[in-house]
Amino acid sequence: MPRLRLLSASLCAALATLVVAAPIAAQTTGNRLPDIGSSAGQMLNPKQQEAYGAMTLSQLRHYGYVLEDPLLEDWLQSVGHRLAANSDRPRQQFTFFLLKDRQINAFATLGGYIATNAGLVLAASREDQVASVLSHEIAHVTQDHVLRGVERAQKDSVPILLAMLGAIMVAQKAGGNSSDDATMAALSAGQALMYQRQINYTRDNEAEADRVGMQTLARSGYDPNAMAEFFTTLQGWVRVNQGGEKERTPDYLQTHPITVTRISEAKERAAQMKPQNSFAAGGASANPLLPSNLRLPDQGLTPAGTGVFGYAKERLRVLSADTPAQAIREYEQMTNKAPLDDSQRYGLALARLLSNQPSAAMAELAPLIERHPGDLWLQLAMGEAESHAGKHAEADKRFQALLDRMPRNRPVALTYAQVLAERGDAASGKRAQSVLRPLAASASDDPTYQETFGRASDLAGDPVRAGEAHAEAEYLNGRPERALMQLENLKKRGDLDYYARARIDARIAAITPTVLELRRQGVKDEVLQD
């Protein structure tokens, strides 16, 4: 984790500034990179932009920066998609994802891909503040700031980023302290220029992103005051935390400079607004079938907010900690200052569960479930704790009740399937397969699903399905050459039926151009080259 945090700020800034630099974009655009023209409107079409955004996500997964968790992903997507539906481009596709790093940062890339660091969520005191940052990043996409930034930086950034990525891979092979030193040396040459270009770009567009983002925030029913509120929090963070690397200026402020004037303007805009509820948020004002002058009373409209921010923040605290034991120590320190609230007790229970203390986790969760009997987050944690404690019948009963209530709920299905796979027997593997199959149609781009289904299929004695799922997970995690190799080996099996062979042939045909393009540009899989 320390090395991860060391690298992520520089690499993510580089990827955010120019995602067209890496070659994996060819995965959906043929075996040649698009020809970048001279104007933002003609440089990349929407399909190409989406391909580059997907490439960025897969590469961040490849280097282990992405925090993959079904509950947190569903929470972030719920917030992000509500905002996107109320943006200036409601038809624009957006993908929101979390990074493990505890530095405060967020950025947008081409294709509507928006990353949020764990540290930014941990710094927020309420969901509206996180929503204010997401709405700002959404505005960078809808106002074409990202696309123009790519055009502006393309000449210098391509060689810089490719050199940085290559040097990082070489440095990591060295191992030990020399690896860290070599990695930092490789990054230092390009980091300053990448940051400067990003800062120049954001200073020219921050005012517009603030204004448009605040409109999106208000239309979504969130508190528009949250933007200035969070700006003030970040500014206070800089005043209090001065010194070494861990206390340096948050990455978000290096690419999104905050001034007193900017905070004042945000406060003034918020004073002229109040949370609204548009058609996407459950209201009537944007419904084309209703009279334009019709206004429904506020109390009759759906309020903004998922209602689970506290749980999401504490789950993120635990999953972004270096170890579960460190997370437990954080909660012990918090207890010394004030009694833990219910969300924090949930986080402590999760940390104990991940520390292989299921009985202690169950003891923490039991009173919470008494107070909140139908809460999904608590029920899933209790089911996991029961299973880890050997109480399989109780866990199965709890998970089955959740499945009956929410048969296609992704966190429920994935959590239960992962619990079943941990038991390691064929019956559990087959049961996990049946739990996951209802999600198959929507899971083609979900690496967590593919990894879990692959493990379940292994246990169930279904090697063909397992091989296909493992190959797909490799591809989605930025390792297309390994995916291709697995599929080629799978194709050699003598027990393939016609349909399995057709599926495998189709995926080989789709993945091969990506691998050829990578080889043409000299990018090789570091594991396969060992």
Brief rundown of the structure:
The chain is mainly alpha-helical and 530 residues long. The protein contains 24 helices and three strands.
Notable features of this structure?
67% helix; 3% strand; single chain; 2 domains; disordered N terminus; 530 residues; Serine Threonine Protein Phosphatase 5, Tetratricopeptide repeat; three-stranded mixed β-sheet; mainly alpha
Report on this structure.
67% of the residues lie in helices and 3% in strands. Residues 1-11, 13-41, 157-179, 182-193, 243-247 and 277-302 have low confidence and may be disordered. It has two domains: 2-284, no CATH class; 309-520, Tetratricopeptide repeat domain (Serine Threonine Protein Phosphatase 5, Tetratricopeptide repeat). It has 530 residues and is an all-alpha fold. It has helices at 2-17, 26-29, 40-43, 46-62, 70-85, 118-123, 127-142, 145-174, 176-219, 225-240, 251-255, 260-271, 309-320, 324-337, 342-354, 358-371, 376-388, 392-405, 410-423, 426-436, 447-460, 463-476, 480-491, 498-520, and strands spanning 95-99, 106-109, 113-117. The chain contains 24 helices and three strands.
Number of domains: 2
Q: Report strand %.
A: under 5%
Largest sheet properties: 3 strands, mixed
User: What is the terminal separation in angstroms?
Assistant: 24 Å
Tell me the helix content: 55-70%
| DSSP summary, beta strand count | 3
User: Which stretches of 5+ consecutive residues score pLDDT under 50?
Assistant: 1-11, 13-41, 157-179, 182-193, 243-247, 277-302
The ordered H/E elements are HHHHHEEEHHHHHHHHHHHHHHHHHHH
Main-sheet strand order equals 1-3-2
Question: From the helix content, strand content and strand pairing, which structural class follows?
Answer: mainly alpha
Assembly type of the shown chains? Answer: single chain
- Rounded radius of gyration (Å): 24 Å
General shape: globular
* Count of helical regions: 24
Mean pLDDT: 80
